[in-house]
């Protein structure tokens, strides 16, 4: 089963995304910040990470950088989708870190299309 990790400190956003993904048939794991998200990557080995940019402890850019470092060291490369508001310009300065960048607020059907393009159906 395809596993997706949703990392967002806004619980409502994380829950809405997780419920939509679960309804579509994906297995979903959530984390409230980048550090716990990185721990979940190691523990759960997801096929895709969806992360917010602004979070406490470790932001989405730092999480994506840590995942890129793991891939450079031989770990499996995991596509990362960034959900962001005002930080799009910062994220676009490092396009190699993200498979896609989606603006908040987002349309769920667009997020689902991106996920399908990246990992296929559940």
Overview of the structural elements:
Keywords: Phosphoprotein. This is CheY-like chemotaxis protein. It comes from Endobacter medicaginis. This protein has 122 residues and is α/β, with parallel strands linked by helices. The chain has a domain at 24-45 and 66-76. The chain has 5 helices and 5 strands, in the order βαβαβαβαβα. It has helices at residues 11-24, 34-44, 60-72, 88-92, 108-119; strands at 3-7, 27-31, 48-52, 80-84, 100-103. A 5-stranded parallel beta sheet has the order 2-1-3-4-5, sandwiched between helices. It is globular, with a radius of gyration of 13 Å.
What general outline do the C-alpha atoms trace? globular
Largest sheet: 5 strands, parallel
Oligomer: single chain
| DSSP strand count | 5
Report the total helices.
Answer: 5
Cα(first) to Cα(last) distance is: 6 Å
Question: Low-confidence parts lasting 5 or more residues at pLDDT below 50?
Answer: none
Structure class: alpha/beta
Domain Response regulatory: 3-119
Keywords: Phosphoprotein
Organism: Endobacter medicaginis
Protein name: CheY-like chemotaxis protein
Any chance you could write out the topology, listing elements then pairs?
Blueprint (H helix, E strand, L loop, with lengths): L2 E5 L3 H14 L2 E5 L2 H11 L3 E5 L7 H13 L7 E5 L3 H5 L7 E4 L4 H12 L3
Parallel strand pairs: 1-2, 1-3, 3-4, 4-5
């Amino acid at each position: 089963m395809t596993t997706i990790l949703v990392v967002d400190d806004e619980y409502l956003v994380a829950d809405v995304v997780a419920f939509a993904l679960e309804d579509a048939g994906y297995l979903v794991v959530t984390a409230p910040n980048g550090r716990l998200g990185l721990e979940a990557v190691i523990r759960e080995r997801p096929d895709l990470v969806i992360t917010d940019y602004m979070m406490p402890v470790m932001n989405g850019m730092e999480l994506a950088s840590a995942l890129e470092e793991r891939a450079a060291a031989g770990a499996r490369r995991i596509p990362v989708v960034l959900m962001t508001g005002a930080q799009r310009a910062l994220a676009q300065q490092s396009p190699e870190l993200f498979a896609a960048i989606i603006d908040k607020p987002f349309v769920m059907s667009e997020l689902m299309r991106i996920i399908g393009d990246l990992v296929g159906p559940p």
